[in-house]
Amino acid sequence: MSRSLKIVILLVGGLLVIIAVLVILFWGEKKMPAEVNGDLNQPGSGSLPIENRLIINDNTTVEITKENAPTLTEEQREEVDLERLAFSFIERFGSYSNQSNFENIRDLELFMTSSMKRWANKYISQNRSKMGDIYWGVTTKALAVKSIQIGEQQAMIVISTQRKETSADPNNYRIYNQDAELIFKKISGIWLLDGIYWQ
pTM of the full predicted structure? Predict the structure, then answer.
């Protein structure tokens, strides 16, 4: 299996996990009614809705099915897909060590514009000799979308991240929060990363 295919499979898997978390969070918020009256142990009269039920305006519930599940508009779907891509990208791009030989950048070239690829190649060639021999590394976890602006051909997403710097000594580490601004361009109908800026 080629490295590009492995990357695509990993990213798709990561995106599916993010979708599952978003669905759980979205439905979790919908399960609690704004006001609950009566005995919670008695069905009806103000009891909490049963799981996998949709609350109707008259306080009745119905089974959630494909037919009555809320649907996203094309714009909402595109925004969710772009957010997932940004989460996966920043976690991969922002996690590396001096022994990884810039794989965090090389593995993402498939998702970059040509100008971003040129920047990546230049960055790698300029920093290859600065890696050193004593181990150090950084891991990045995407936490939330701070802001998002999507146009027809360009988008900007700011992601809040938590980063951890480690060294050869496992007791010597630093954890800090850092935002990252990602610029995407739509090329032939596909969103590609065109710039990334740590804030």
Answer: 0.61
